[in-house]
Design goal:
This protein has one domain. It has helices at residues 3-31, 38-51, 53-63. It contains 3 helices and no strands. The protein is elongated and about 50 Å long.
Length: 69
């Protein structure tokens, strides 16, 4: 797969992943976390807000990998 096609496919996957991830994080945050102490809430939202960066970074790295000749 060439770079252009990887960027196209990767962009679609990234958008879908971020939408699904945000929906899951929001549903967990509005459900079980509401009764927790403030420290637990802050920790959850800090981790949930940054956790998407790891898979997205791997995907972007794959998208920008040079073509194998």
């Amino acid at each position: 797969m060439n770079v252009r096609m990887r960027k196209f496919v990767g962009s679609i996957i990234l958008v879908v992943f971020l939408i699904v991830y945000a929906l899951i994080a929001m549903s967990l945050g509005s459900g079980r976390i509401t009764e927790a102490q403030i420290g637990i809430k802050v920790l959850y939202f800090a981790v949930a807000g940054l956790l998407w960066v790891l898979p997205a970074g791997l995907l972007v790295r794959w998208m920008h990998r040079p073509d194998a000749d």
